[in-house]
Design goal:
348 residues, seven-stranded mixed sheet, four-stranded antiparallel sheet, 15 helices
């Protein structure tokens, strides 16, 4: 069985593992106050082009989203997100468990726009009973989105401008950020994210690390006391240096983007094979997530040899599914799947 369900089926990139082994018997202080975390944070600030950024390391995406949002919002405030946003539909109510409502908006291939955010804010302000409703205070987006799509530079800048106009924080979930930055049609880079977002994070769990996410904070309001919230939410790892060591390996010589490009290249190859076999895409993207629409009978046959994820029902006989490539995907496994697609299509 070859697995394409997600981009964290494997452990960690060999260079990350080598770095962990090299430093295994070092004695360091705990809780992320060691030299490795400091160096990794410096490498990330350099990549972002801003020495004033605060950088913190947490273990996983849900923990990161919950901690950032809880740190930013007062009890009566909520966070705006797409209906398909990870915090809205795939984190077991983690944000709501902290006492904050997710204000979900309709999406276009996983994205929300500045006009939608402005309309929601205006509706709140113009409501005579606004004090009886949750106050919007943050906008949460993912890049890539849950559909593998990307925000363009203009879209991000417009969202940032609307957030500043209405006093909202802009938070970008970068669990798969590497695959977005390396994509052929990408318009963003880390300096742009640092300039437009109040806070974002660089995903490691899905991009070559054993585990770990790097939270990058540009807004001084959110920097204050953030470590208190990390501790309170159970995110302060005693052996925090394990996070710093991994991000050192990912950022000291361009490994993060190098391995992301590998995943995107193989995804493009597989995506084209699906198209040539006559299977359309639910959403168009150039990142590592692929969403072909296929007959249920063929999916049942594929499921005997490959792991993939169900996405949604399209009609009575067709479903959209998700195939993911990763930094560790082998080209021979892509070629094997492509050969099976060709054979199956010829048999139809």
């Amino acid at each position: 069985m070859i697995l394409f369900q997600c981009d964290y089926n494997e452990g960690a990139h060999p260079r990350v593992m080598e770095k962990l082994l090299e430093t295994n018997l070092e004695q360091t202080v705990g809780y992320g106050e060691d030299g490795h975390c400091a160096r990794a944070a410096g490498l990330i600030r350099k990549a972002c082009g801003d020495d004033t950024l605060a950088v913190h390391f947490l273990v996983g995406g849900t923990q990161t989203n919950m901690t950032v949002i809880a740190a930013a919002l007062r009890p009566h405030q909520g966070v705006i997100a797409a209906q398909t946003g990870h915090i809205n539909c795939h984190e077991t109510g983690a944000v709501e468990s902290t006492g904050h409502k997710v204000l979900a908006l309709p999406h276009q291939d996983g994205k929300i726009g500045a006009a939608q955010v402005e309309a929601l804010c205006e509706a709140h302000l113009q409501d005579a009973s606004f004090e009886h409703t949750v106050q919007p205070k943050m906008v949460y987006i993912s890049n890539p989105t849950e559909y593998g799509t990307l925000y363009g530079r203009k879209e991000l800048e417009e969202l940032s401008a609307v957030c500043r106009k209405y006093g909202l924080y802009l938070f970008l979930d970068g669990a798969r950020l590497g695959y977005g930055l390396a994509a052929a049609d990408n318009e963003l880079d880390l300096p742009c994210l640092a300039a437009c977002c109040d806070v974002f994070y660089i995903g490691g769990t899905k991009v070559g690390a054993l585990f770990g996410e790097a939270v990058v904070i540009s807004n001084d309001e959110l920097k204050k006391d953030f470590r208190y919230l990390i501790k309170q939410k159970g995110g302060m790892l005693a052996k925090g240096r394990l996070l710093g060591v991994q991000f050192e390996a990912l950022f000291e010589d361009g490994l993060y983007l190098e391995i992301s490009r590998h995943a995107d290249r193989l995804a493009d190859k597989l995506r084209e094979a699906f198209r040539q076999a006559g299977f359309p895409m639910l959403a168009e993207s150039r990142t590592n997530q692929i969403f072909p629409v296929m007959p249920d009978a063929l999916l049942k046959e594929l499921a005997g040899r490959y792991g993939f994820s169900y996405q949604e029902r399209v009609d009575e006989t067709h479903s959209a599914v998700r195939f993911c490539t990763s930094w560790a995907t082998k080209e021979e496994n892509i070629d094997r799947l492509i050969a099976d697609l060709k054979r199956m299509r010829q048999a139809v």
